Amino acid sequence: MPTQWQVEHFRGAIELASEMLKSLILVNGGAAIGLLTFYGNFIKSSDDPMFDRLSLVYAMSGFGVGLVLSVFASGFGSLSSLSAAMNNRGEVPLRVTAVILALLSAIAFATGVYFGATAIPGR
Length: 123
Description:
Helices cover 83% and strands 0% of the residues.
């Protein structure tokens, strides 16, 4: 039987993971919207907009993939918690999958940031 401390520690870990996944969703979605807004205004204000369209596509792809991965990570995390609540031993692979998806989401975000920053050469 778990002690009260173990229960509270587990509850805190679940809350931390939940907030991390919400942050990944917010950051990736916000970055995609911000990038579209920035480049839209950049194109309108410049007579000769010089930017690398392929880098823009890669940046948007990175943010989009990061968003999808973070949503899937959230789903796998929820399934893991549900599986643990039902005393099913299958929660560990679900939890590992959620962590891997969250890490891949962070990598996709970093990739989007890199390509977004390199889309305007020499400015």
